[in-house]
Specification:
It is built from five helices and eleven strands, in the order βββαββαβαββαββαβ. It is an alpha+beta fold. The strands form three sheets. Strands 2-3-6-4-5 form a five-stranded antiparallel β-sheet, with helices on both faces. Strands 9-10-8-11 form a four-stranded antiparallel β-sheet, with helices on one face. Helix 2 runs parallel beside helix 3. It starts with 8 loop residues before the first strand and ends with a strand.
């Protein structure tokens, strides 16, 4: 599965979305979220279970990271392979990552059978992913930068010039910034920062 053909970029969503699909009385509510960690996914899952206490199933799939190895899917009591896999299949068909989709089902009184369930979970997921923009983001490496506040302008100039993102910052007498450096600009950014006096740069793995 190729998440991206370009190692410097990947596709994902940046906004949550939802959609509804109905079949023979059963209602399937799909919720798509951008995530970066399993912990983030678990928070969304707990919240949805609180909001939908009468739902009979809360099936899901997620994929995180760029190597394609961090993923999970769950049928949550539905017949094996009828919910989680179709949800993950829709995420993968769009070649996106750092995405979770949860589908909440309300029982409608009629058995849909495995083909009907596969279609319902697949369609609900597809609808939710259609209403949120898929964006291309640059792959970034995280670095911690420590510097004196007098160096602020020079450090921020490098961050801005090379399109780095500021993930966290603590500005006091001594400043601490966690930044995401685009993989294709890494050498230039590190060279520029190392040129500045008394600036410490540490990679975050």
């Amino acid at each position: 599965m190729a998440i991206t053909d370009d190692k410097d970029f990947y596709k994902t969503i940046t906004q949550p979305s939802s959609a509804e699909f109905k079949d023979r009385g059963s209602k399937f509510f799909a919720f798509a979220f951008p995530i970066e960690t399993v912990e983030e996914f678990k928070k969304h899952q707990q919240q949805l279970k609180k909001e939908h206490p009468k739902a009979v199933h809360c099936c899901f799939a997620y994929r995180i990271g760029l190597d394609g190895n961090n993923f999970r899917s769950s049928d949550d009591g539905e017949p094996s392979g009828s919910a989680g896999k179709p949800i993950l299949g829709q995420i993968d068909s769009k070649e996106i990552t750092n995405v979770a989709v949860l589908v909440v089902r309300y029982w409608g009184g009629t058995l849909l059978g495995v083909p009907g369930l596969i279609n319902a979970y697949k369609t609900a997921t597809s609808l939710a992913l259609q209403v949120t923009p898929i964006v291309q983001k640059q792959v970034e490496l995280k670095y911690k930068i420590l510097f004196d506040y007098t160096q602020m302008n020079e450090v921020m100039m490098v961050i801005k010039q090379y399109n780095c993102t500021v993930i966290e910052q603590e500005m006091q007498l001594f400043c601490n910034i966690i930044t995401g450096v685009p993989t294709n600009r890494k050498e230039e950014v590190l060279y520029k920062l190392n040129e500045l006096r008394a600036v410490e740069i540490t990679p975050i793995t």
